[in-house]
Amino acid sequence: MKKDKIIEKNIEAAVDAEETVTAETEATPSEADMMREYESEIIAQSRDHHNGPLLLSARDVCVKFNLRGQILTAIRKASLDVYEGETLAIVGESGSGKSVFTKTFIGMLDKNGTIDGGELFFHGEDMAKYDTEAQWLKVRGKKIAMVFQDPMTSLNPVRTIGEQIAEVIMWHFGKSHDEAKKETIELLRKVGIHDPEARYKQYPGEFSGGMRQRVVIATAIACRPEILICDEPTTALDVTVQAQVLDLIKSLQKELKMSVVFITHDLGVVANVADWVAVMYAGKIVEYGTADDIFYDPRHPYTWALLSSMPDLETTEKLDAIPGSPPNMVCPPVGDAFAERNKYAMRIDFEMQPPQFAVSDTHWAATWLLHPDAPKVEVPKIITDRIERMRKAGGND
Ligand SMILES: Nc1ncnc2c1ncn2[C@@H]1O[C@H](COP(=O)(O)OP(=O)(O)O)[C@@H](O)[C@H]1O
Ligand SMILES: [Mg+2]
Q1: Is 328 close to ligand 1, i.e. is its CB under 6 Å away?
Q2: Whose C-alpha lies nearest to ligand 1, atom 19?
Q3: CATH number belonging to domain 2-150+259-393
Q4: What predicted TM-score, i.e. pTM, was given to this entire model?
Q5: 71: nearest Cα among 283, 332, 326, 285
Q6: 150-176: per-residue pLDDT in tens?
Q7: Which of 99, 108, 146, 263 for mutating ligand 1's site (highest number of atoms within 8 Å of CB)?
Q8: For ligand 1, is residue 148 a contact (CB within 6 Å)?
Q9: What confidence tens digit (pLDDT) does each residue in 172-216 have?
Q10: Which atom of ligand 1 is nearest to the CA of 103?
């Protein structure tokens, strides 16, 4: 009741596009606290719909970069929960903050970046408060591992594949060289590398792009991490190899019961891998739901835009590229960051950031269109047509 009041009070009747808006842009501290509680509640309400316990909880994470004296706000109060044994996809255009946000989970921000607020709860600790490398070393690689787009960023070109993986095993588990070698060969086999005994002795340069990415995945799972973050792991690969690497990640996720956070700019990839989807724009999560929620009942105009720019097998109409470009994060917009590019934007979109509105227990979106007083906007035809095709094709799987 109280939280509804707060939203009401903040927006008055402002969502009526006809009316002049006098939105308060700054909430008083107690209102801000209540808003925070309300948003946290909306994020947490899906808890009964997950298969396992909550593992990692990011709340209101902010990240700033110092760019030759200018401050760029890359992440603006992003909140997200990662549950055990599930695949969560984070999707959004390039530059929306997917990599930066997830790098905070393993303490790997570039040197000019800092976590400037928020919490990262993992196993009862707030990792946002970590200030020594020793603290991160207990998490990074061991409990949360990351696979990047370009496998060569993780591989040393002048050392053999086998020795690189074996070293990780020796370092983390204190195993002998012989034991580590045996395990490495098993891991290489597990990720689908043929003749692993011979491949063990080869250098990264002797592997194709797809095979290198398999090696990086083998290294990442060597420590049996609880969470594997895959940051555009297939973007640099050609389409057939992409599908194979996706299948590999899916089967490893099942076998090892890991949580996978899968980052991509391509919603088409998401349909094949994700249980849950978080849509990110301009440093915020703007919509969250099950894969079905996002594909069959998308609510945020940005998600509509992403969906309509995604090719599918039967696309006959010209694809709508999302007009315009993401905002300059040196001076982020005061309102909804998507407003400038959103043909459904109302006046309030330019003046105040929308709160998260619950669509169902599993689904929420931060758009003023979901306010009860907002004018009714029909989902664009290109989206309803696509949904129709997806339903006919028999769903995501
Ligand atoms: N080291 C850095 N210094 C300054 N800005 C950065 C740095 N790293 C990332 N950014 C900025 O942070 C924003 C989010 O970037 P990123 O997380 O890489 O996007 P995505 O992974 O979604 O493509 C972008 O505006 C990007 O330019
Ligand atoms: Mg990225």
Answers
A1: no
A2: 95
A3: 3.40.50.300
A4: 0.91
A5: 332
A6: 888 889 999 999 999 999 999 888 999
A7: 99
A8: no
A9: 889 999 999 999 999 999 999 999 999 999 999 999 999 999 999
A10: 17
